[in-house]
Amino acid sequence: MADSEFLFNMDHGYLEGLCRGFRSGILTQGDYLNLVQCETLEDLKLHLQSTDYGTFLQNEPSPLQVATIDDKLREKLVIEFQHLRNHSLAPLSQFMDYITYSYMIDNIILLITGTLHQRAISELLPKCHPLGSFEQMASISIASTPAELYNAVLVDTPLAPFFVECISEQDMDEMNIELIRNTLYKAYLESFYNFCQNIGGATAEVMGQILSFEADRRCFIITINSFGTELSKDDRAKLYPRCGKLYPDGLVKLAKADDYDQVQNVAQYYGEYRNIFDNVGNGPSEKTLEDRFFEHEVKLNVLAFQQQFHFGVFYSWLKLKEQESRNVVWIAECIAQRNRGKIDNYVPIF
Amino acid sequence: MGYYTNKYHLALYIVFYSAIIIVGLYYILSGLGYRFDIGWFFEATSPFMWADLGIGLAISLSVVGAAWGIFATGSSIVGGGVKAPRIKTKNLVSIIFCEAVAIYGIIMAIVLSNNIAPYDATAAKDILRKNYFGGYSIFAAGLTVGLSNLACGICVGIVGSGAALADAQNASLFVKVLIVEIFGSAIGLFGVIIGIIQVSKSAMGNKP
User: Which of A9, A12, A83, A321 to mutate to test the interface with B (most CBs of B within 10 A)?
Assistant: First the structure.
């Protein structure tokens, strides 16, 4: 009862209203049409001033770089997310923490890889995603092997349960970094899914759909990327998150797949995924598989706003803003490199 | 009915129902069933208790409903008003609808309390009957008004929250959602009408 529509507004009503206010500032199709017609990055900056972004690029020295635009977009997003997180109460605060864990995983892997290649910690820290920062980040460089790293540093972070569930200490040293990343992400996704199901109500329904699509998407991507590498089929099957629609039958078939056509056959059994796999290609008027996955994700995230009194709006707003950042950076890159051929390949949101 | 959030709730449920069953069986099987006398209970309690309970319920449940509605709507208006300040003034209408629910409660409580009067407990049977009837009808009217205002307040509150957020996205939606709210607030009015009808025949006191 506490998080159904009767008492939701007691703890979370203001933040939901604020989040929906942020969502109404997401760029529309009209804004994208303006941006696509810009000739230079200065024009882009001018057009962004009339949107919700305002004068965020005001103090940047010219000439403007695409990397600066990317950083500033992310900074605005992070400020808004931190504001919401600071004002939230449980269980919304736990929910938002769960969202940040995926960025934490990326940061940890980045830092481990950097440390293994003998890079200085001061060089790596600015590359980390600010949403995934945690207190022990700076002390990651003291450990020289992943096992030591776990014992000394990671066991105090919120990610410790994800390490414990799937990897033992000996595994950490032998496994390839990418395998560690994928195993961690699998544990994280399943834990997040169970958390949302325990909250129940509209949150469970909305987040269940979004997270099960995320799980299935990872299964497909892992399978396709593992063709031609030395990852065995058993190891690959251990990386599949089990909270999606593909579990259990689709995952068994995917684990046995040998090439792209077999993966496409597995997708034929599921209505939405069949549509995604059609018309995929690298030609000028076709979209890549990643693009189609992004489109489907955007569609699910937009649908989350149709219901009220659930936490899915916070997750969906964050993902839509990220997609918008990717779109703006894509357009900026096309403009900066003067290659307007594929400038329309952004994923439209509204 | 078989879903319990944890073992504590299940244990409480089992203890409660087995206590009732054991006590009930004890009375029945030992021939002491006559001690469980509902008629005696109703005759022995004073009609003033029922009447005053009714008045208390009328005002308190109405206020709970109004408060519930106001916090539900108010937090959404404040949240939505950050990025869309134009909604702030128009959406106060939703708060006014919720407040009306509390006003119904207070009016009914005053009307009901005017029906209470002292009576002589040793008077003739028909005067006693009239007073008992008065006590029960005031209780019933108070409960009617209280519960229907509780539901009305929650309804108007949740719809008002949706109205505020819809208005923040698209200004033309506000009037449409307001119509839903008006229907919701009508149900509180139904409760008041029925409450008035319930007490219209009753009067406590010494006159026959």
Answer: A9
